[in-house]
Amino acid sequence: MFSIPQMVLVTLWFTFYNLLTSGTGLGLAAGGVVLNGLVVGAIMGDISTGFYLGGTYELMNIGLNPLGGSTVPNYNMGVVVGVAFGAVAGVETGMAVGIVVATLASTLDVLAKMVGSFFLHKAQDAVGKKNIKGAMNWIRLGFWPRILLDATIPLIILFAFGAPLVEAINSVIPAWLLSGFKTAGNMLPAIGFAILLRSMNIKGNFQYVIIGFVLYAYLGIGALGAALVGVALAMIAYQNNVRIAEAQNMGGVGDE
Question: With contact defined as beta carbons under 8 Å apart, do 56 and 91 qualify?
Answer without folding.
Answer: no
